[in-house]
Each structure stands twice: as structure tokens, then as C-alpha cells.
Amino acid sequence: MVEDVSKGAAGYGREGRRSRILHYLMAIYILGGLPGGEYAKFIKISRLLNVSPSTVSIMTRRLQMKGLVELIPNTGVRLTEQGLKLLSNYLWKSGLLEVLLARAGVDIDNCRGMGLRMAEGLSDEDAWILYKVLGEPKYCPHKKPIIPPDKINSENARNIALCCGITILQIPNKK
User: Fold this and answer.
1) Which of 133, 101, 136, 129 is nearest to 115 (CA)?
2) Secondary structure letter of residue 157 according to DSSP
3) Which is nearest to 166 in space by CA: 67, 106, 100, 93?
4) Domain 83-167, CATH class in plain words
5) Using an 8 Å Cβ cutoff, are 131 and 166 in contact?
6) Which option is the CATH number for 5-80: 1.10.10.10, 2.60.40.1570, 3.40.630.30, 3.40.1010.20?
7) With contact defined as beta carbons under 8 Å apart, do 175 and 25 qualify?
8) Which of 40, 59, 85, 136 has the most crowded Cβ, counting Cβ within 10 A?
9) Where are the transmembrane segments (predicted)?
């Protein structure tokens, strides 16, 4: 079962660092912080992730140092192209895994959570192989578009989270 991210970001070990980064990138994305667009407000990120504003401030500075977000103090934060690429790659892998799981007979309601949990462990090389083996699927089992990360641009970036109806509460929280 997928854990509810609203329980907070505490409790991450080394293996959870990437999950925490994805949580923040998804929160920023959901709040409209796309490259070249609006800035997601720190307080809204704090409420969405159920963490303190100071935690958001610390984490967004770390994300900025990694080149994943653009940060403006007292204004907000938005994804960089690199941050959008990382997030879209994760969601693309998740969609591919959903297709694979559905074809293997897994109940469609369970595919989403399983795909999200498995996506972090899937290498880019293996994802592209899977993409080809699956016949380059364009839709997940829920009939939402699967957009390969090399096809994401400013026009279709808003659609990546629509794949499988993903919300911040569905990203697995590794502890």
C-alpha cells in the first residue's frame, strides 16, 4: 500500500533521500511551479507536505544547489528544466510499470501504487527497453497519457501528473 505523504517528510534514511526530492518536486509541480511559470509558495508546499516552513526552506535551498529548482526568497520556488526532467522521468517509468503490471494481471487499482514504488529502482536503460518491449505505450491502464521524458516540453508539461491521476498523496514514502 502507498503511504500518505501528508504524514510528513521525517524518517527518511539514505535510501529515502531520492523519494524526498521527488516529493518536493511533485509538490512544486502540483502548485504550478513549472519552468518559466508561476512560483509555488513556501507555505503551500509546507501545508501540502505537512512539514514546517523552515523545513521547506532548507530543502528547497538544497534542491536549488542541485539545479532542480529556481528559488526566490519571499516569493517561492519553481522547477528548472532539470527538475522537470527528473520528475517526468520518474512518472514515465511509473506509467510503464503500470502497463506491465496490468498486462501481468494485477488489479488495475493496485497498479498505480505498485508502479510508483517500483519506478525509483528502474534504471533509465531498463525503462527504455521496457518501453520498446511494451510496444511504446501511449496510455496507462487508466487511459491517461504516458509521455516519454524526451518528449516533455513547456506545452505538454502540465499533462505529466495527469498520467494515472497521480497526486502528492500517492508518491510512496520510503522510510
Assistant:
1) 101
2) G
3) 93
4) mainly alpha
5) no
6) 1.10.10.10
7) no
8) 40
9) 21-40
